[in-house]
Structures are given as structure tokens and as C-alpha cells.
Specification:
By secondary structure, this protein is mainly beta. Helices cover 13% and strands 47% of the residues. It has one domain: Double-stranded beta-helix. The chain has helices at 47-55, 118-123, 182-187, 210-217, and strands at 2-6, 12-17, 23-26, 30-33, 37-42, 62-67, 72-77, 82-88, 94-96, 101-105, 108-114, 129-135, 138-144, 147-152, 157-160, 165-169, 173-178, 193-198, 201-206. Strand 1 and strand 2 form a beta hairpin.
Length: 225
């Protein structure tokens, strides 16, 4: 499989596959494909794993793409303005926020990941459920706005505004801590808690969240008046 990521803040992942190869995406992610490509909705992994994907924010059925009579191309894209992140899962497992998974090679395993600490569940902004990507091959995630990737050294900590942490390697510790004093919590604009990510491992941070995007559009929406 070969691929390119094109575009600015409304990106395509352009996936080129040979006959005999398979690529999977979430339902609705396909934006275009060449004429020799076929697509088939599949409950990949069986009903149990399919239901687990739904709880993790993905779709019950994944869409399988295959090429006939030569190389084929399928283009997938996200559901909001932002970036597409490519991850080589062969280098190690990743944890991603709910709904981040966009597509990946057949050898990539998408599973439900549960928060391990009560603070993260109650105040983490992403709730109880996360996504875990393991196995081998390339996977693609979608995120809002622009992205920054930070490679944390052992023991190095980043404090991230709630919901802006897109994904992190499985070696990174994830928790929730107080944003600061009462005045900071009330008037700092970040709420009571922030996400703490402690290395070693890579983390990915997005500049915007879906809730922020939706909130920015509300004043411009037509009203009943």
C-alpha cells in the first residue's frame, strides 16, 4: 500500500492499493475512488468487535476496499475541517480519542480502550471510552484544526486542555489534574481540569475541538425569529 495526504485543512488521504491488498475505513469516509475499486460493508472481526467499535465512536460496519485488474486508489476524508494523521502501528500501539479512527490496513486492530482512572472518566472530556490501535500497518486518524506532535522523554509531562489530546502512544501515561486555583478554574477558560500526558512516547495535540467549532458557528446560525 502507498498513500499521500493532500490538502490544507480539509484533507484527503489518497490510498493506492494493489490487487490482493485490502484497506478498511469507517462508513462514510470514502470521498472518491477509481473505477476498478470495489467496496463492501463488513462487520470486520465479528459482531462482538463490531459492537465494541460502536461504543468507541466508530461505525458498526467497516468498509472494505479492493482493487481489480491493476492498482486502484481510494480517497478518504474527515467530517470536519482539520488534519489527517498517519500512524505506523507496526512501531507500537496508540490510544486515540473517541471517533478519531478514519481507516487503516487490514492488519490494524481497532479496539475499545477504557479509562483506567476515575478522574479521567469523570473530567477527561472524552468520557469512559477511547480507541486503541494495535497490530501492524498504517492507520489514519482525523482531528480538528492543526496538529502538533511532541515526542516526550521519560518522565516529561505536558498539560493539555481538555479534549485537545488527539492520540498518544500506549507507553504514555494519561491522567487528569486540577487546572490551578479557584480563580484560574473559574476565569481561566479551561475549566476545572486539564489532561496530563507523561512520557516516554509521542503525543498528538489538536488546535481545535468539535465542540469549539460548533460553538463558534452558533452566533451565525438562523434563528426562529
Amino acid at each position: 500500500m502507498k498513500y499521500t495526504i493532500t490538502g490544507g485543512n480539509l484533507q484527503f488521504a489518497n490510498i493506492e492499493i494493489d490487487p490482493g491488498e485490502e484497506f478498511f475505513s469507517t462508513a462514510g469516509a470514502m470521498k472518491y475512488m477509481t473505477g476498478n475499486m470495489t467496496m463492501e460493508a463488513k462487520a470486520e472481526g465479528g459482531i462482538r468487535k463490531s459492537i465494541g467499535r460502536v461504543f468507541s465512536g466508530s461505525t458498526l460496519f467497516l468498509v472494505k476496499y479492493s482493487a481489480n485488474g491493476g492498482k486502484g486508489v481510494v480517497g478518504i476524508g474527515g467530517s470536519a475541517p482539520g488534519k489527517i494523521l498517519d500512524l505506523n502501528i507496526s512501531e507500537g500501539a496508540w490510544i486515540a480519542q473517541k471517533t478519531a479512527y478514519l481507516g487503516g490496513e487490514k492488519s490494524v486492530i481497532l479496539e475499545v480502550a477504557f479509562q483506567r482512572k476515575l478522574g479521567a472518566i469523570l473530567f477527561g472530556g472524552e468520557g469512559l471510552i477511547l480507541q486503541r490501535l494495535s497490530g501492524k500497518g498504517m492507520a489514519f486518524l482525523e482531528a480538528c484544526g492543526d496538529l502538533i506532535v511532541v515526542d516526550l522523554a521519560p518522565g516529561q509531562m505536558y498539560k493539555v486542555s481538555t479534549s485537545n489530546a488527539v492520540a498518544w502512544q500506549d507507553s504514555v501515561k494519561y491522567d487528569i489534574t486540577a487546572a490551578g486555583g479557584i480563580k484560574t478554574a473559574l476565569f481561566g477558560g479551561e475549566g476545572l481540569f486539564v489532561t496530563t500526558l507523561t512520557g516516554p512516547g509521542k503525543i498528538v495535540i489538536q488546535s481545535m475541538t468539535l465542540s469549539e467549532l460548533a460553538g463558534s458557528l452558533v452566533p451565525f446560525l438562523p434563528s426562529s425569529r
